[in-house]
Predict the 3D structure of the following.
Amino acid sequence: MTVVAFANQKGGTGKTTLLMNVAAALHHCGRRVAILDADPQGTASRWSQANRQQPFPVPIHPAGRSAEEVTKAIKSARRGVDLLLVDCPPSVEGEETRAAVSVSDWVVIPVAPSPPDLWATRGIVHLMAALPNKGSRRHGLLVANRVPPRSALGRDVLELLAEFEFPLARTAIGARAAYAQAAALGCSVLDLKRADAACAEIQALTEELLSHIDGARP
C-alpha cells in the first residue's frame, strides 16, 4: 500500500483540486483508493458532500488535528486500499503536515506558476529532506498547476522547477474553469461534459504518477 501526500507550504496552489481529480482517475483505473482529509479547512470533505444524489466515488476519511491523530488516521484508512491520498494543510509548520509527510511514500507538490509559489515550494522540499525516512526512500513529484495558456511567466517557472531536487511531471495542469465546476458539483472533471482538455490532463498525470510509483517499488 502506498501513501501519497499532496502538500505545499502555500495555499492557493490547487492542492485539493488536484488530489480530488487524481483520486477519481485512480478509481476509474480500477485502483482501490481512499482519501484522508488532514486539512483543517476540510475542502476535500465538503467537496465530496456537495452532490447528495451521486456521492464522490472515493471514500474520504477525516483526520485529527494533532500529529498523533493524523498518524492513527493514516494507519486506519490505509487498510484495504492500494493508495491512500492525504490532503495536507497549506503549511509546513503544522504538525499535521509533518506527520503526514513523515509516513508518506510519495509527496505530490503542486506549484502554481508565480514567483511566490516557486519560493514557497522550497519549504516543503526542505521539510522532506529534514524528516527521517521510514525505512525506504521518500519520493517527491512536482506538478505545475493552474498554468495559464501561452504565459511567458509560466514557461519561466517551469524551467526553474526543472532545477529542483525532485522530478517535474511532464503533464502540466491548466487554469481551466472545469476544475472549479467539478468542485461546485461535487464530482471530478471526468464526470463533466465538454471538459475534454481537463480530463486528458488528469488522466495523463494519473498515469504518470502511477508509472513513478510502480517503477519505484523494489
Notes: DSSP finds eight helices and six strands in the chain. The domain at 2-216 is CATH 3.40.50.300 (Rossmann fold). The two ends are 13 Å apart (CA to CA). The mean pLDDT is 89.
